[in-house]
Amino acid sequence: MARENKLKFKNSNIQIEKILLDSKLNDQTINQEKYDEEINKLKIKEENWIAEKGTFFSIIAQYYKKEWKLGLLFLFLTAITATVSIMLPLLTQQMIKAIMIDVTAGGMEQSGYWGLLWWESLLIAVGIVVGNMFIQFGTQYIGVTMGKRIEIDLRNRALEALIRQDISYYSDKKIGELITKVVSDTQIVGDQAATIPSTILSSVLTITASMALMFVFQSVMAASILGVFLVILLFMTVAFGVSKKVITKVRTVITEINGNVVDRINNVRLVKSSGTELYETERFKEVHKDYYKWTKKMAKVQAMMVVILFGGISLLQLMTVAMAMIIYHDAGKEALAFFTTDFASFQMAQGTMVGALFQVVMLTMGIAQASVASVRVNNTIESSSIMDMHYFDGVEVDNIFGDINFKDVMFAYPEKPDNIILPKFSFKFEQGKSYAFVGETGSGKSTIARMLLRFYDPTEGQILINKDLDLKDVKLSTYLDHVGYVEQEPQILYGNVYDNVKYGRFNATNEEVIEACKKADLHNLVSTWSHGYDTVLGERGFMLSGGQKQRLVIARMFLKDPQLLILDEATSALDNIVEKEIQEKLSELMVGRTSVTIAHRLSTIKNVDQIVVLGANGGGVVQTGTFNELKNKPGHFQKLYKAGLMD
Predict the structure, then answer these.
(1) Which residues, at least 6 apart from 518, have a Cβ–Cβ distance to it below 8 Å?
(2) pLDDT (tens digit per residue) in 261-272
(3) Same structural domain for residues 365 and 276?
(4) Would you say residue 421 lies in a domain?
(5) What is the extent of the structural domain holding 535?
(6) Mean local confidence (pLDDT), 478-497
(7) CATH number at residue 339
(8) Backbone dihedral angles phi then psi of residue 398, each to the nearest 5 degrees
(9) Same domain, yes or no: 16 and 73
(10) What pTM was computed for the model?
(11) Domain match, 169 and 236 both
(12) Region of poorest pLDDT, from 29-38, 330-339, 348-357, 585-594
């Protein structure tokens, strides 16, 4: 609890420092350069806080606390297994003592004898072994179950965090890298979540009890073994520290490789159309060189740990024999008594301790991997969005009514805060009217669409809907229920036609999907497929042409029936004939809705109610008017039109 409070206190201080810095920047008591410098320092602090909060043991402690009944049962069974294992050396001692009494007809006195016959001790030992097998089954079953619960919960939390991130989060990340963290790293943590605690607890108990037994059997020999054992642990601790650093690098490199693999598979059309298969083959060989270099270093560390372990075990065994010879080489009857009764038990206890040590050493690589994976997963989970989407709170909207107002809006992308895309401006979208934004590349056309979708918030100013409701205060999902979006690259899910058209309106019937496809002029095509609407479209609609993808998205929009429709260069990737067909369907879709078109082709904007012209290089709004007004009026639009950029 004290550690949790300490971590919360650290985080609170970081957040307070951020607020104070923002206040100083607004009051102009510090300049932008100083602000950026201090913010970077806070980011490092926050990363360290996340890493500390996200250690493997802190993560599984949370889950063991949450599942405390199952966790206690698991640890209790583990403790029983460890405790039971140390009974075998004692029972072995009792069997030998019983046999010696029988052999000498009671002539050799046996101190510490329990009075059991040798076969009685043997039966107890067999019963313990058999009973321990059932306990180990329960321990393993509970452990794997808990591990999978932890894995699934971590993965769900990571996916939830990724889905709820603002769009800028993905600007510098590869999908393959995120997949590695979400799938591979969570699996590592889950697999080790049961193995590591149970093995550590079992090993600590076993080593402690075994060492205690050895002191009971022969204290001088036990002290010598303990000294060697501590030296082995010291070397293993140093090796573990090195291995953790190497594993961190290996995980980083394999994450980058996965990112490269997914990137190339996603762009396989480019590879095939360019005939660059051999280039990509050689490129992957180059990419893996760094991975191979670091895995070789990891192999060296692992080999060193194995050498230390087996060398140490051999030294322990040799130490046992050597010390026994030194102590009892001329001890007469005392030597006979020791070698006939206690020596075998001492070696068995030592063997039990060595077995536990072996488990711990073999576990160190798992601990190192789990430690690295835990921090990476927690970084994903704890990464905070720069925007509050109000998933669980905020003002709910049943519909979008009235005008949509851009009030004193200024925008710069969070990734490049010094590059002003849209200088301060105000604009009103009247309900039911159609608008088009035109301009050169980089003028901020698509930025308008992204702010309406709340991919980004304005850097300054407000977007007001339903009279005076700031879009930042709205429960975003209720707003987007009434917004339709068609972009240049249609978003197609892996699934059938029903899955794709229903997305965003999951309660729609199959009949409604078919009707929407008819409106989008897609039904006849789907009907020619052998599986019809149940046809799986492939990842990202791999089997569909550009025009077919857009028809499917338009069908999705007809089904959704949005009040605000945003078309972001929806036909720019299509040929003229297909574009004309798609534009006719989009025009049908726009009727009676507030629509915003981002485009550069004449056919998509000439019939809208108002065109907004954006200047190049952050020039902002430079002209507004209808198509006929603007093409005959000297200005930026006329230059674009005459240059053929609007045709």
Answers:
(1) none
(2) 777 776 665 665
(3) yes
(4) no
(5) 485-561
(6) 85
(7) 1.20.1560.10
(8) -85, -25
(9) no
(10) 0.67
(11) yes
(12) 29-38
